[in-house]
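name: query_chain
kind: protein
chains: 1
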Amino acid sequence: MSEELNLSEVLRVRREKLKKLVEMGRDPFKVEKYKATAFSGEIKENFDTMEGKPVSIAGRIMAKRTMGKAAFLDIQDKQGRIQSYVRQDAIGEEEYDILVTYDIGDIVGIQGTVFKTKQGEVSIKASEVLLLSKSLQVLPEKWHGLKDQEIRYRQRYVDLIVNPEVKETFLKRNRIIKAIREFLDDRGYLEVETPILTTIAGGAAARPFVTHHNTLDLDMQLRIANELYLKRLIVGGFDKVYEMGKMFRNEGISIKHNPEFTNIELYAAYEDYEDMMEITENIVAYCAEKAHGTTVINYQGTEIDFKPPWRRASMHDLVKEKTGIDFYAFESDGEARKAAKEKLHLEVETHMKRGHLVSLAFEEFCEKDLIQPTFVLHHPVEVSPLAKRNPENPLITNRFEAFANTWEIANAFSELNDPIDQKLRFEEQLAQKEAGDEEAHPMDEDFINALEVGLPPTGGLGIGVDRLIMLLTDSPSIRDIILFPTMKPIEK
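structure:
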């Protein structure tokens, strides 16, 4: 309770200081702009050429030491921190008396000259200090910092101030996203935008968020993927397209899942899933090089090398090797379900066919072994409603998922362009939905119509950008690489 009273008193004092400044006609919130001519990092880096030259900087006071008629302020700007040395005789007695009332967290503008102290620290000798904004809250103190993860995610603005390494994570995120665009732009892909609000959320197996358009009195959904619109553009004659943006899935939250997340999908006419594998391994290696200067990363103590080519393995072969069961050898789906329950102790639902069981067994027994980058190929047709069947085995598709650190980071296939087969698969998905599968794909008649107009042979790829960034920034949770992750309201 005493700490609460203490904090309450500190906050009251800060407001009193602001009130006095306003009464003196020095309301900091009326300052509209300030021209900074230099930043902390460049001043330190270029001291030899900047020594003795006038500069102005702007930033937040992170430390203050007052010694009689002189004070030292540590100022933090976008490039880091720099010390400012302020003497009473340099700025005037009245200004100095006001300066000593400034608090940690206040934002100031400082004019002065660059010099180095006797201790060898590059600093700014101030000739003017102007209060630009008054901090009415208290920053976490220096040594304990902001450690509570929940508060860090909720108050990211404070997290960025007191934990500088967090800012570096998001700067690296920016570099990775730029690298993805560079890679695709250089290969002739066109970046496009497709609807986020739609009446049919398709292109993936997931539950959508539902909203309502008042004017049209129409229930709508937030997209779970942008696949079906991008393929419509391939039909329309754009041979190579991509879109990077937010997707929304009404599912659980975990260290790898946030209800809104960043994804990229790309499509290339006259290419197939083999081409998509080549793009996947090279785009990830390119991003790793941009972020680290090497394809070898260390994620939470595990070394992972993204250098192409990556390992390739069939999903069916991995399951058979791990469990000793060949689900396609059973004569009926019932026999396969019985074996999955009795021998593998899997939770099997009545609508599941052999392909579902292969996928379920893979998730349960095989994913955990996929540490180094691996392409898992030839998913069952039952769990791949938009992928082209393998011409040699119609029970499987020409599809792959890319795994690293046991996580799926990409999904791709030779796109199904047969409108008759596509409609049958959508109808099978509807039957699964009626049998209780909430994530089964909906029917999309307009997409069928687009296929009937004619989709050329096409390769398509989706990459989970957030998961890739987690790996390349050594971040243990997806919340660490999303500036404002989804959180429960505090009252809940």
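note: The chain has a mean pLDDT of 94.
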